[in-house]
Amino acid sequence: MAETSAAGNSGMMTAMNTMMKNMEAFKPEGNTDHDFAHMMMAHHQGAVEMSALELKEGKDATLRAMAEKISADQQKEIKALEAIATRLDGAPTNYKPQDPADPFTSKMKSSMAGMMNMGQPSGNVDMDYAMMMVPHHQSAVDMAKAEVAHGRDTKLKEMAQSMIDAQQKEIQQFKDWQAKNGGKMKASAATYECPMGDGGKSNAPGKCPKCGMDLEKKA
């Protein structure tokens, strides 16, 4: 497996961190369907950017084919989500986005938490793409399950179920690739945490996805 530049690895992390910042910056209106559509658009954009880097610098034919399909599928879904989100602007509130105990709020926040704990990047774009896309896709699956359970818009719930089916299949494909290519990354013993104490942490050095400050090595 050919090694890639550190710049490629940095770009992969940057795409993930940018996605997290965009999702954190979104101000939910309190309608499950409207807010899910907006959050998923930002989430999909992260996958599109990571897939673009895989297509630019990755070497593995299987992963490049997956990246091409994921990028095309999710760009198409972003356009559909934009139309739905616009249609739902001003929709009646049906959940409490500021209440951690609200079922929809709780599930959406939990879905993002899994992306905060990734293995240490290897510096190989193929390996890192597969490693990062597993928790990324799992987060999308969890978000989509929250929409299926609590959403009201029939078209959007059907779209969410399609996302679950497609991304669960792709998660397994990534895991199969990792097993075949020795890509089961071992988590780093070190933990990097945000000096601001806002909960941002990672197993690798980088920027806090919440505030953008440099993470500090703790152990």
UniProtKB/TrEMBL annotation:
Q: Which InterPro entries has this protein been placed in?
A: DUF305_CopM-like (IPR005183), Ferritin-like (IPR012347), HMBD (IPR045800)
Pfam families documented for this protein: DUF305, HMBD
Positions of the Heavy metal binding domain: 192-218
Recorded source organism is Hymenobacter glaciei
Give the coiled coil ranges: none
Q: Where is this region: Disordered?
A: 197-219
Name assigned to this protein: DUF305 domain-containing protein
User: Where does the DUF305 domain start and stop, copy by copy?
Assistant: 33-177
